[in-house]
User: What shape does this take?
Amino acid sequence: MELNLPLLVGAAVVDSINPCAFGVLIFLLAYLTSTFKEPRRVLLHGFVYIIAVFVTYLAVGLVLLPVLRQLGAISTVAYIVIGALVILFGLLELKDVFWYGRGPTLAIFPSAAKRIEIYVKHVSKKLVAAFGLGVFVALVELPCTGAVYIAVLSLMSLAGVTLKYAWFLVLYNFLFVLPLFIILFLVAKGREAHRFEEWRQRHKRDMRLLTGLVLIGLGIWMISYVR
Assistant: This one.
């Protein structure tokens, strides 16, 4: 099986507009702009945070890719199970379009969300705190943002773990954080963070709808291929 570049880019773009990823960054930028008077410091701390998210997601992908490949080598049933889970995640996203908060949902756990609020208040002290926050957020938001990533990693593992797909993984994660960089630079240029939060709330259902449809499509493709 060949994972082509248009599919990878399309999946990465859909994953990059996840409301969870936007929400944490907007919250962070609102705090930074109220703490720092110099846009340069907001830009620097935000940049370090986003780089940490990128590095962490890339590391997770590099760890999971050979694991998924090994599971597939043991039995194709593993890919069918993963495909079914991807479809389930897609259905949960579609459920949240109409009944958000009812039943299970793909979101950051409430306990982790509270920790994020606490950690954000320490970001202004040292750059290492901004990096640590990025690592923490990247890990705890995986239940919210990781479904598309898992599907893409599974498709990569079906095609074989090669240097080409390592570069694909770098590209995927760059596209994932690209909107975060755009928001960061616009806020540093004077845009108010709450404007982005208003936009996120207004389009949250649309983002979940698109993500859900993509997940269902990827899951069906995985199952139909291995069968």
Remarks:
- The chain has a mean pLDDT of 84.
- The chain has one domain: 12-226.
- The radius of gyration is 18 Å.
- Residues 12-226 form one domain.
